[in-house]
Amino acid sequence: MRMYDIIEKKKRGISLSKAEIEYFVRGATDGSIPDYQISALMMAIFFKGMDPEETYELTMAMAASGDMLDLSAIEGIKVDKHSTGGVGDKTTFVIAPMIAALGLPFAKMSGRGLGHTGGTIDKLEAFPGFRTSISETKFFDNVARHKISVVGQTKNLAPCDKKLYALRDATATVDQISLIASSIMSKKLASGADAIVLDVKVGSGAFMKTKEEARKLAETMVNIGNAAGRKVTAVLTDMDEPLGYAVGNTLEVIEAIDALRGEGPKDLMEVVYALGCQLALLSGVAHTRDEALEKLNRVIDDGSAYDKFCEFIRIQNGNPEDVPRMRELLHVSDVEEIFAESDGYVSKINAEMIGHASMVLGGGRAAKEDSIDLNVGVVLHKKVGDSIISGESIATIYGNDPKKVMVAKEEVLSAYSFTKNKVDRPAKILEIIGER
Ligand code: URA
């Protein structure tokens, strides 16, 4: 078999066989296929696409390119949740302990943030001492005994995806549905969960800008997961404005802790309940949406989800006493308000611009190797549909560098659009794909 012939075949729009895909994945992983040939194939796939069988075979080969976690020794249906990435998305911190408090083992491997979107692993590091890298034995033990663990992706989890993603990023071939679906699902399948809920974000702050594109991606991922023997549901959620009010690592953790205390923003809780509900249904812990909601509400009301979060921080080396005093751990030298210049209503908040403002403050990475400031970020006070009065604060900037704060302030103000007429609040849950 020759890589040249595989590229030629895809260039002509002919489907690749399982053997050809496996040959490619093996060579991309062990370095025997050069970057220029891998990149050429990515571009051919970008233009000619892949059919469902090819997409499935690519995903399976990528998942098997490194370690495949076998969680079967842990009792119960192991669950996982994945977001395609957005701005202000702190849902994992709320859902994971809620689900664990229901007795379901929640096992998640997560990533760091890149560009305008944040990453769960960075946010967890807001807790001094918290370890996002623990041994496999400890990960298994935490999931089995405490029903919860969230760790960084191990080096050998779908290594082929690491190689392909870096080349796609450099060759403008990220935004192709089969490539995104196989990239995400290879990591999910290798992480070992039996039931997976995918939060597919749609809008200005997301990869998928339209509902149609997001639906296609969601269907592709659900089909791959089901064909691989996993239970998968996807929820399409709005990411046209940031989720909740806080954007920035520690600020988002503070908002998630408020949510676990029953004081979460309405839009965040809508997404949390929709995803939690699907996890409860997939795992069989509830049989109807009403029953699932009743159970999820109970773990918030009786404090068991909050207690589970404290337990999670403790078992991964953090100090649970930091949970109630997270606000005191925020260290910023510059806090600036942004004031409304006239009366009216908020009609739009460009999520990508808000995410970018947080990145400019130092809260996100432009390149993978950049270090970040966990303290900085933006807290919005007004969301789409809210009324505003001239002179009112619409957002607060938290920074540690006056020059960066000035740039972020401009960007946050330009992310907002206003109107004189009343505006409806946007729906957060757009569609559910593969509900059982
Ligand atoms: N997230 C991934 O893990 N892979 C992609 O290709 C896009 C988003």
What does this structure look like?
- The chain is 46% helix and 15% strand.
- The protein is of the alpha/beta class and 436 residues long.
- The chain folds into three domains: 3-49, Transferase, Pyrimidine Nucleoside Phosphorylase, Chain C (Transferase, Pyrimidine Nucleoside Phosphorylase, Chain A, domain 3, Up-down Bundle); 79-325, Nucleoside phosphorylase/phosphoribosyltransferase catalytic domain (Pyrimidine Nucleoside Phosphorylase, Chain A, domain 2, 3-Layer(aba) Sandwich), CATH 3.40.1030.10; 331-419, Pyrimidine nucleoside phosphorylase-like, C-terminal domain (Aldehyde Oxidoreductase, domain 3).
- Strands 1-4-5-13 form a four-stranded mixed β-sheet, with helices on both faces.
- Helix 10 links the parallel strand 4 (195-202) and strand 5.
- The longest helix is centred in the middle third of the chain and has 18 residues, at 266-283.
- 53% of the residues are buried.
- The mean pLDDT is 95.
- Uracil binds at residues 84, 165, 174, 179-180, 183-184.
